[in-house]
Amino acid sequence: MQLVFATNNQHKLEEVQAMVGTDIELKSLSDINCLEDIPETGETFEANASQKSQFIYNRYQLNCFADDSGLEVDSLNGEPGVYSARYGGTRDSESNLQLVLDKLGDSGMRTARFRTVISLILDGKEHLFEGVAEGEITKEKAGVKGFGYDPIFQPSGYDITFAEMTSEEKNSISHRAKAMHKLIEFLKAAR
Questions:
Q1: Which of these, 98, 132, 101, 105, lies nearest to 117 by C-alpha position?
Q2: CA count, 13 A, side-chain hemisphere, 130
Q3: What does the alpha-carbon distance between residue 129 and residue 160 come to, in Å, rounded to a whole number?
Q4: Which of 14, 49, 54, 146 is an S-S bond match for 119, by CB 3.0 to 4.6 Å?
Q5: Which listed residue (23, 31, 37, 68) is catalytic?
Q6: CA-CA distance, 53 to 13, in Å (whole number)?
Q7: Can you name the residues that pair with 70 across neighbouring β-strands?
Q8: pTM of the complete model beyond 0.85
Q9: What are residue 113's phi and psi, to 5 degrees?
Q10: What is the pLDDT along the chain (191 residues), one digit of tens a residue?
């Protein structure tokens, strides 16, 4: 089985290929010569993931999946949410992360979660899978691994941030891994 993963991030593609094994061959956007910017104008993770997968399926008629994810901070009314990648007005991870810390200040209310939604289109039918990692925002950055908000997100049950974990540790509990495992189980059952 072949599936298009709506990404050009080679590291992400290899990581997901390792999760799905050899029964499914993943193709990236560049593998199918998709060079356009795919719109992401939805108000929710579900809408953005669906918009991306529908774009690929409608344009190329290929089975595919796309994801959208972000950080939701409870005391910031769920911000940055779908705007996680451009929260400070740019795609600069450092300024986005600092904006969250600045807005929280010394607040004791620091609960948050990372959410991922994957939209799979298989033979024209859409299926959605969600993964959530609960935790809290630390008062300062810790760790150098990972990306985005990882240095300030401490998952529940741990005393270190995502940025202090090995990729194996993070991938065993992350929001993206949880959603991917649901997708993989669905694909195994569908065969």
A1: 132
A2: 10
A3: 27
A4: 49
A5: 68
A6: 16
A7: 115
A8: yes
A9: -150, 150
A10: 889 999 887 767 877 887 777 888 899 999 999 988 898 899 999 999 999 999 999 999 999 999 999 999 999 999 999 999 889 888 888 999 999 999 999 999 999 999 999 999 999 999 999 999 999 999 999 999 878 899 999 999 999 999 999 988 988 899 988 999 999 999 888 76
